[in-house]
Specification:
Two copies of one chain form a homodimer. By secondary structure, chain A is α/β, with parallel strands linked by helices. The first copy, chain A, is 44% helix and 14% strand. Chain A has 14 helices and 14 strands. In chain A, the strands form three sheets. Chain A has an eight-stranded mixed beta sheet, with helices on both faces. The first copy, chain A, has a four-stranded antiparallel beta sheet with strand order 10-11-14-13, covered by helices on one side. In chain A, strands 1-12 form a two-stranded parallel sheet. The first copy, chain A, is globular. The termini of chain A are far apart. The interface between A and B is large, with 85 and 85 residues.
Chain lengths: 408, 408
């Protein structure tokens, strides 16, 4: 038993990837003078500490007998009811919603419910690497479909479904982040949402809508979620399951999210939760319920949006001021990320190495692509964490490095 | 898409069992006049509400920037250091310990790290059904080895290992609950612990020591954990990984536990956590760290033990007073459960049906056995949740039902 144990590992443990994104964050964290656009963290200035602190005290003193005890694997009924009301489905049966340890946890249970090794998940390309590694850990093959400024390309989606089915692949679900996508910042248009739902419905493939940034809209008009559209506009009321999170609103340290969809998806997910977590933190669930009940949520979301809007504006105007003409970028209406496209000859990883030495960091684009659609000449910038001043300084710094690389 | 989705389920989702224990708890909860010994819950009177409430407020106000933010998947370094000191391994590297969403979560990640479908886990028989269903959900075959009053039978363990290996089975680990076992209440003796470690070491099979009740000792002498014995007495310092929990000390609603062992087990477990939970609740982790740091833990454990001791005594004396001679039971020195053996002709499930109608509940023994060692004539009693008065009344009620069944 002094020998390594890896000969006893499960196949999926042996194959499990090291997260390059985590390595980058480690490399760039706490480095003197470093301005980092690499992370994906909300600003701690947005955490409603005073209210939350008071609610924790109140909930534990008044309801401690209940909330310190074991709770339901499907989530605290009080928290579920409050969330259903907030999401405007107050009469939904409890079986259609589940509280999770952050939305990552909901995505994991959804994936476990459907995926046998070799099954296929279709995603936008680029997409969120946290989900990519979770999908792969469950043995899924992730096939990416390119996006344009309106979201995932419906023609390419149809084409991909056709090709995969011809190959005999079992497509289990389509994974989408329609709002202020991570990493691209792109919001899928209403028309495109409807087109994708129609395609999914026709091919009988469920959709997992990952929507952690939905409340973080700084400009433009709110668009109905795919979950709402499927429910209200389609004769296919539960094709879409939505995963949401309180991480970007109240604080990711609370590890609280929820997932809502049809019973025959939620019930097996709850069975997985019984084995994996038993339940999310019951105290935290009740605190979040009281936070919403006491009507703090909408005001707090307005505060966050007002706080992030100038950061996004600063980043877009700094890019305008400092990037060469050969570089383009997305103009998100919310969320936390801007996506930058470089001329095809440039390699964002090489750029990263130089940038890091010069005190500015980002995540090279290749980390965001499913295997079939790898691209080197792009990167992701985060604007929620750095200060407005650091955004100006950091983008100026980055612009001059890009100019050197681009040869002008 | 209006058709059921179960044709899209993963194989393990399709096979996932309904928990009979949960059904029993549902059937017996909130029933007028019911005295239930069925649950496995700590008494809410043991939750240190005032201290915890104050600490939540203090931690969020003072450290909210940190604890409301994303935290490490391996756990809060502050909490880890405090736990290491408490467990008397202050100099252990951080890579050898991981904080989990309750100990169930640690057991799940340990299982995921090792189990491919068809692999074998050896357990005590009877054992904890929550772990049985988690093992089976990962595709493991669980093979039980009978216990006597000293714990798992070493000769039968050797025999079982031999038989399984002859059959070409891959044994991945041995799962044990050496302290106040759930459901039997049995504590594995020191000598037996050493014998089992020697066997496991000889056959190169790691041990998972599940120890959620370790601090709940009401009488008798503390025995070194298998984790401590393997570290200090054997030339095989990290054969044993221990999973512990704050559920029975501070409250299960907080969902906090930890697991400690060698790096080549903990590191892949952390990789699983990145995909499944990201991390446990960071606020709760820091609160537990401050609770221990401020030296509340030992006094609180003494309080809990003083609170539960009379309940255990009440149950043992009530059994003595009301059960017929043909019935035997364990005499635990701690924990939350007593195990009752009925004459062979009696079926605890039939008994349960009658008892339920007469206002007393327990869990029939068959729920606790791996497939190979199924037994009908036993049941589990919980004494932590009911009051001393209800214990007397309930056991009297149960005794008269058993007497009717046993024909005297």
């Amino acid at each position: 038993m002094k020998s390594p144990l890896n000969n006893l590992y499960a196949a999926q443990t042996r194959e499990m990837k090291h997260s390059f994104v985590r390595l980058i964050l480690k490399l760039t964290k706490g480095v003197e003078g470093m301005i980092s656009f690499a992370g994906g963290m909300p600003s701690p200035d947005t955490f409603p500490r005073e209210i939350i602190a008071g609610l924790f005290q109140e909930v534990i003193l008044k309801e401690g007998h209940d909330v310190l005890q074991y709770g339901s694997s499907e989530g605290d009924p009080v928290c579920k009811q409050v969330i259903k009301s907030y999401e405007e489905v107050p009469d939904w049966p409890d079986e259609k919603i589940m509280i999770t340890v952050g939305s990552t946890n909901g995505i994991y249970f959804y994936t476990r419910t459907f995926i046998d090794p070799g099954d296929v998940i279709i995603s936008e390309s680029p997409t969120f690497p946290g989900s990519l590694v979770a999908f792969e850990a469950c043995g899924a093959e992730v096939v990416g479909v390119p996006m344009d400024s309106g979201g995932i390309d419906p023609d390419r989606l149809v084409e991909t479904i056709g090709t995969l089915r011809k190959e005999g692949k079992r497509i289990k679900f389509i994974y989408l982040i329609p709002e202020f996508q991570n990493p691209s910042g792109i919001t899928t248009s209403r028309q495109r949402r409807e087109a994708v739902i129609a395609i999914a419905s026709e091919h009988a493939i469920p959709i997992l809508e990952d929507s952690p940034y939905r409340e973080l809209r700084y400009t433009g008009e709110r668009i109905m979620s795919m979950w709402e559209i499927a429910r209200t506009q389609f004769d296919d009321p539960a094709l879409v399951t939505i995963a949401k999170s309180f991480s970007k609103i109240l604080g990711p340290g609370l590890r609280l999210g929820f997932i809502a969809g049809r019973e025959d998806i939620i019930i097996p997910m709850v069975k997985w939760a019984e084995k994996v977590t038993v339940s999310p933190d019951c105290t935290t669930q009740r605190v979040v319920a009281r936070f919403i009940e006491k009507e703090h949520l909408n005001a707090h979301i307005r505060f966050i949006c007002d706080y992030y809007r100038p950061k996004l504006e600063a980043m877009l105007s700094a890019l305008e001021a400092h990037m060469p003409d050969s570089v383009t970028w997305t103009r998100p209406e919310g969320g936390m990320f801007v996506w930058v496209d470089l001329p095809e000859s440039l390699d964002a990883e090489a750029l990263f190495e130089t940038a890091r030495k010069k005190g500015v960091a980002f995540i090279p684009g290749n980390n965001f692509f499913p295997k079939n659609t790898y691209r080197k000449n792009a990167f992701r910038l985060n604007f929620s964490y750095p200060s407005v001043e650091d955004i100006h300084t950091g983008i100026e710094r980055l612009g001059s490095i890009v100019k050197t690389f681009a040869g002008r």
